[in-house]
Automatic annotation (TrEMBL):
Position of the signal peptide: none
PANTHER family for the chain: DEHYDRATASE, PUTATIVE (AFU_ORTHOLOGUE AFUA_6G08740)-RELATED, HYDROXYPYRUVATE ISOMERASE
Record SUPFAM superfamilies: Xylose isomerase-like
Species: Exophiala oligosperma
Residue stretches making up the Xylose isomerase-like TIM barrel domain: 31-323
Annotated protein name in UniProt: Xylose isomerase-like TIM barrel domain-containing protein
Superkingdom classification of source: Eukaryota
Family annotation (Pfam families): AP_endonuc_2
Amino acid sequence: MATFKGDKIPTCYASCSIGHNDKHTLPEKLKAIAGAGFDAIELSMPDILAYGQQISENRSELDPNDFATIRTVGQKIRDLCKEHGLKILILQPFANFEGWPKDGKERKDAWERAMGWMSIMETIGTDMMQIGSSDAEGISSNFDDLASDLAELADVFAKKGFRIAYENWCWATHAPTWKSVWEVVKRADRPNLGLCLDTFQSAGGEWGSPVTRSGLIEDVGKYDLDRRWKASCEELSQSVPPEKIFFLQISDAYKMDPPLENKSDRSGLRPRGQWSHDYRPLPYDGGYLPIEDFTRAVLKTGFRGWLSMEVFDGRGPDKYGDNMHPYAQQAFSSLQKLLDKAGAKA
């Protein structure tokens, strides 16, 4: 459990999500995470599928739409978490839900996946699902349409007592910033629909860039960029009610040298998506984004909820080897350091 320093700053809870690595099995991750002092995990669909393949008799890959089999695997994961005293905070990451044409096959598929994921949530014992702002082509740019879709799903989830945490993915098609997803959430106006905020997604979207040699957004000068970033953080701290922040994800990013090409990769993933998937270290572990600013802004709202270390560090094995325990301990220590620096001024 991570604590803040200061007479008026109470305890928050710490969760951990470590990106997929073929050498790191889910049981090993859980043991390391619990041993480091974390309270919970974010359970990702890739980890469920990988563990399902590991325990299957023929080591065959699971169909991500075979929800009956995934629920069976989910129950085993729930039991493992219980053994380690870990809560499953959330099921993630659900992609490309909102904004599809009303009668299109994409919308039908999105709803079928959402209902399947909801059944998995029941099995694993979590009440929250994360939806990332869509990076799909062909979706509506009208925030009322995006809000309507999320409101409709939130109403279905409410019948089960479930919540949706909507996160800005900084490479999203129409809602890449905290302010844009907050606008969608406000328009949807559902008590069980809130925000997942993320230090990387905001600092990496509004201040940093993986396609420039400076590592910065270069359409404005450095002074104006810093001023704009500080103003965004201040606006967040003054405008978002703490109860609408369901949790905060924390990671940094490497400055890319050489920069990434300013185009989508073969899978269609945009540069900031590529950056997100492979180059997100722990705080104070080689990154350069102003994540303390963003963490401080979230704390200034009055938020005192779940904090989650969500890292995807392709360089991690070279730095830490295959033993997950020192890495998990470093994750917890870096979280405490970040809170000391950001929380002391909250």
